[in-house]
Amino acid sequence: MHEFGLAFVTAFHLIADFDPGLVGIVGLSLRVSLTAVLLSALIGLPLGAAVAAFRFPGRRAVTLFLNTAMGLPPVVVGLIVYLILSRSGPLGVLGLLFTPTAMIVAQTLLIVPIVAALTRQIVEDLLVEYGDLLRVMGTGPVTTLFTLLSEARWSLLTIVLAGFGRASAEVGAVMIVGGNIDRVTRVMTTSIALETSKGDLPLALGLGVILMTLSLSVNFAAAMVRETRRA
Amino acid sequence: MLRRSFVLGCAAAAALLLGSVQPTTAADRFITVASTTSTEDSGLFKSILPKFTEKTGIEVRVVAKGTGQAIDIAKRGDADVLFVHHKPSEDKFVAEGFSTERKPVMYNDFVIVGPKADPAKVGGSKDVSAALKSIAAAKAPFVSRGDDSGTHKSEQALWKTAGVDPTTGDGWYRAIGQGMGATLNTAAAVSGYAMTDRATWLSFKNRGDLDILVEGDKRLFNQYGVMLVNPAKFSHVKAADGQAFVDWLVSAEGQQAIADYKINGNSLFFPNANEPGA
Description:
Chain A: Residues 26-222 form the ABC transmembrane type-1 domain. Chain A: It is found in: Cell membrane. The complex is a heterodimer. Chain A is built from ten helices and no strands. Chain A is an all-alpha fold. In chain A, α2 crosses α6 (141-151), α2 (20-53) packs across α7 and α5 packs across α8. Chain A has one domain: MetI-like fold, CATH 1.10.3720. Chain B is 42% helix and 22% strand. Chain B starts with a helix and ends in a 7-residue tail after the last strand. Chain B is built from eleven helices and twelve strands. In chain B, a hairpin with a 2-residue loop joins β10 and β11. Chain B has two domains: 30-107 and 224-271, Periplasmic binding protein-like II (D-Maltodextrin-Binding Protein, domain 2), CATH 3.40.190.10; 109-220, Periplasmic binding protein-like II (D-Maltodextrin-Binding Protein, domain 2, 3-Layer(aba) Sandwich), CATH 3.40.190.
């Protein structure tokens, strides 16, 4: 049990000393996961709303696909991105394997289905309420989408946070496509995996404490925005 | 009104993030080295790479995997240099044209670790074959890498020499398909035996009840080799900078840097670039 105590002491020391290695790792984690979340929101929110608002052939199949893809195993997504970005793969010329960009791509693929699938459900529920009104007003498709997304924005914020949670917590995809290279592609989760494999369990758990603190801060910030804007 | 604030919020978030997206490191001169967990986890690279970078200005980016996976990364052209420890695989890599030359760099040795209670009674033995036979006979838990790494391949060869096929046993032989550290963590958790390279063991912190029980057998020798990925095969390979790293590792300076890396006064790797046939 004393490992748990040690973990908190380790975490406290790492934060208090403003450990430069740690600052870089935390910065990269935030940069990769927040960028992936932003891209996912830009793609997933309109996509989910469109699937909910418009009737088109194959709509149910798309819904089923999005719902299933929410459970994509990170390690499988990592492997697919790895094979595509490898020098021997179709996009090998770009030389993106083992870079933060590759990690962003993998995480975006992981989160887009989550954002899109949950957005679809929320917007669909909203349509029950607003559908008639929008039809009466005769708004165009783009305006309809924006109105719906805007009306649902606080629920959508929770979805985006769920996406961030998934991105910042996953290790399978970033380990494979990033390669866990020191100071280049090493993020919080891959550091935890590395320290575990070195047998330094208190340090690994300490990093886990910091990662959760970070996640808490992001969620807290979102909650603050929500409260102030609502008031 | 609501829509505008939503769009504004999105735009602000985008600006914030794009502003933060910048190259992680200033150095644009770097090579990618596919290597093994033992060289990374033991802290060797952290000790020697800054010396190379300081001298040449070339940053070395290490992707540390098991030898099998490291070779695969190099074969796909995703690394400039391969630095691993399984000579037969390395010779095959060269024979297949993925490199033009393999150079021996250093060695260390494998050891068999196990619980201090030592149910198979192998402690102090210098005969690894006899020790493995005893472990099999006692059906004592043995945790194997099972991941096609250099260590795993060497372990399999030793079982063969001992005349035992551990995979037919009834559950005492556990191939976990993970790295050296995870294997040692597992062995510590189940009070089992495991084969590890000495460097990883010396730097490993979660030893639990485990101790070195078998060491010193010549068959436990563990040689490391380095090779530049063939630029004729992959035109994007950074041949000059990669070769500079290979040359430095086997130079007097690189060899000294390897010898200088110690934990608690123990050397982890022994340079032997000049040993013929190593």
